[in-house]
Amino acid sequence: MARSPKCSASCRAAMLVLSVLLGTFLLAVPSPSVAAAGPSLAILAPANDQVIDNGTPVILSFAVANFWLVQPGRVGQVSNPGEGHVDLYIDGAYSRLLTRVEPVSLPLGSGPHTIRLQLIQDNGTPLSPDIYASVRIVATHGPAVGTPTITIVSPKPGPTIAHDVYFAVEVTNFTLVDSYGQPNAPNEGHIQLFLNGVLNQEPRAYDLAFIVDMPDGNSTVTARLVNNDNTPLSPDVSASVTIRIQGAADPTASEQVTGGVSLILALILLVLLLRRRKAARRVAPPKGEPEDRP
Amino acid sequence: MNARIFALIVAILGMLVASGIPASNGRGAPLPTLSIISPTPNEVIGNGTPVAIVFAVTNFNLTDPGNGTSSPNSGHIDVFVDDALTAQTSVNTIVLPLPSGPHTIRLRLVTDNGSALNPDVTASVSVMVTGGPDSGTPGLSIVFPRGGALVGTDSTLSFQVTNFVLVAPGGPAGVPNDGHIQVYLDNASYAELTDDAPLHLNLKDGPHNVTLQLVDNQGGPLSPDVTASLYITVQALLGRVTPFDATPYLALANLLIGLGILAAIYRKLEVR
């Protein structure tokens, strides 16, 4: 009975030592999941196939894990597989060397683009296996959503006397740009103006269209939204207006004056003829009487 | 004695090695280097996009300017555009918005206090910035009117340009894919177009030839030459409905009526 407290104390000490040893072992041996985690790279924004609208630059956000971003070429730098930098490619062309995980602003032209990030070691070589992330986006000067519409606000349908006519259009959910052969982009393009079904002109972006020397009579002018490559939108977006150009006044002023003079002269002649007839009647002898008076 | 002298010499040599005097000149740290990775020499930067300059350094620590550290192996980069100090950077990429034309970008390693290294460490690259696309063949076509068309005295000519951006004349020479349009009317210079608004023509009756030509900022033709030409015939009052004008007939009637009046007056006098 007297030994039992001793045994109990030694057992507790042994258990304590075992616990410390076990804890030390558990701390010393890393968990399998942590040991297996290698460098990773992810693009947080933009999302794949996202439309970057209104001509804004693309704000690229990315995250790097288990990889230290450092400036390459430091003094006394020793190549370490766990550190390096990020190379950025746009449409396959080298664009940036990134050493900080911070958003990058990329001004891109209209059209589809591919942005690619790649982890690179200090010695300039990619990791093995290669660690990269890429995203496809579409840049446009137009809005990302919405259905384009076009309305001809001037002139109104009906008669007009001018042969040179300005045409004003109103466009929604579509941005007009001057076309120089750039790639197509959503909700971006220009206007084509057709006169009686024949392409007449492509006005400059946000300029009034001006069709001169229009023929007399009815003319239908159609304004159509087209892509940068001049193809119509799908579905077609257009608006038409029919105006009637009135010709010169009929009769003309000179014709009216000459006609008035003719009328007056004719009346004078008529009066003269009537008076002559009356006078002849007064002079002529009554019936049955001899013509020669005494 | 010899052993003492030998020991003294060894001790002196050891002190020299420990003090680092031989190492500083013989097997010291390599000198810093600087190289431009992107853009490549004479690269064309299209669409007026800012130029992203990516460079690499070795044996040099990039630090933010003004952080107070003074070391020949640390500092930042001074960026010169066309020999003018434009920016400073301590990261490996700098983005510069540049106007159209040729530019020379020079980078220089400097210490934190702004002084150049000794020897000077620089790298430079020449690029061409254009508002037009960086590739593609310029094209020009007239979309209205069609060749051989009959048009009125006033008419408009609408055209399309591809792979070429229209800008005001007078910019730097040699910029690819931007410039303006030279218009020739009947082989004589008529106008310069700096945007794609339709051209307004006011021509005399008869046949005419209109030629559009893409030219560079100095007015010189592109190589190869890019032109579009068409023949048109001008006819006044084309498409106008001319109303019937009875004035000549009424004038003749007036003459006849006048003669009739005279005859009537003469006969009346004769009757009296």
How does this model look, in words?
The complex is a heterodimer of chains A (294) and B (272). Chain A is an alpha+beta fold and 294 residues long. Chain A has helices at residues 4-28, 32-36, 253-283, and strands at residues 40-45, 50-52, 58-65, 68-69, 83-90, 93-98, 104-106, 111-121, 132-139, 149-154, 158-160, 165-172, 175-176, 188-195, 198-201, 209-211, 217-226, 238-245. Chain B has two domains: 31-129, Immunoglobulin-like; 139-234, Immunoglobulin-like. Helices cover 18% and strands 41% of the residues of chain B. Chain B contains three helices and 18 strands. Chain B has helices at 2-19, 21-25, 247-271; strands spanning 33-38, 43-45, 51-58, 61-62, 74-81, 84-89, 93-96, 101-110, 122-129, 139-144, 149-151, 154-162, 165-166, 178-185, 188-193, 199-202, 206-215, 227-234. The relative contact order of chain B is 0.11. At the A-B interface, strand 6, strand 15 and helix 3 of A face strand 1, strand 3, strand 4, strand 10 and strand 12 of B.
How is this structure best summarized?
The complex is a heterodimer of chains A (294) and B (272). Chain A has 294 residues and is α+β, with helices and mostly antiparallel strands. Chain A has three helices and 18 strands.
Strand portion of chain B, in percent? Answer: 35-45%
CATH homology group of the largest domain in chain B: Immunoglobulins
**Secondary structure: number of strands of chain A:** 18
- Based on secondary structure, the structural category of chain A is alpha+beta
How much helix is in the residues of chain B?
A: 10-25%
Please give the radius of gyration of chain A in angstroms.
47 Å
Low-confidence sequence ranges of chain A: 1-7, 20-35
Main pleated-sheet profile of chain A: 6 strands, mixed
- Annotation field: number of helices of chain B: 3
The CATH topology of the largest domain in chain B is: Immunoglobulin-like
Order of helices and strands of chain A: HHEEEEEEEEEEEEEEEEEEH
Overall pLDDT of chain B, averaged?
A: 88
